[in-house]
């Protein structure tokens, strides 16, 4: 999958937010939290946020490339 950052959204944390919760809310995939962490390196060591911390959330364009698709979706025949 090709991932491209196409913009940013401002976000102010709520009490109890974590990077993986933010990734789940924004990308439907908590494993993509690294994109948010990389844009907010001052808070990279934060496990659980307090309320009121301003963060920048990357807007991602995710496209599947032929190389990332399983063979049955590429139209290949064995």
Features:
78 residues, alpha+beta, 3 helices, 2 strands, 27% strand, elongated
How is this structure best summarized?
The chain is α+β, with helices and mostly antiparallel strands and 78 residues long. The protein has 3 helices and 2 strands, in the order βααβα. A two-stranded antiparallel sheet has the order 1-2.
Describe the fold and architecture:
With about 80 residues, this protein is α+β, with helices and mostly antiparallel strands. It has 3 helices and 2 strands. It has helices at about 20-25, 35-40, 70-75, and strands spanning about 1-10, 55-65. The chain has a two-stranded antiparallel ribbon with strand order 1-2. α1 (about 20-25) crosses α2. The two termini are about 25 Å apart. The mean pLDDT is about 90.
Helix content: 25-40%
Number of helices: 3
Strand content: 25-35%
Sequence of secondary-structure elements: EHHEH
Rg, rounded, reads 16 Å
Strand order of the largest sheet: 1-2
Please report the total strand number as a whole number: 2
Quote the average pLDDT: 90
Unreliable runs: none
Straight-line distance between termini: 23 Å
Q: Could you give a short account of the major beta sheet? A: 2 strands, antiparallel
**Helix/strand class:** alpha+beta
Gross morphology is: elongated
Q: What's the topology here?
A:
Layout: E1 2-12, H1 19-27, H2 33-39, E2 54-63, H3 71-74
Antiparallel strand pairs: 1-2
Helix pairs in contact: 1-2
């Amino acid at each position: 999958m090709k991932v491209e950052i196409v913009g940013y959204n401002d976000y102010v944390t709520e009490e109890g937010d974590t990077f993986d919760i933010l990734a789940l809310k924004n990308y439907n995939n908590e494993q993509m939290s690294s994109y948010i962490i990389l844009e907010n390196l001052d808070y990279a060591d934060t496990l659980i946020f307090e309320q009121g911390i301003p963060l920048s959330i990357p807007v991602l364009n995710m496209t599947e490339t032929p190389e990332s698709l399983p063979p049955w979706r590429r139209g290949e025949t064995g």
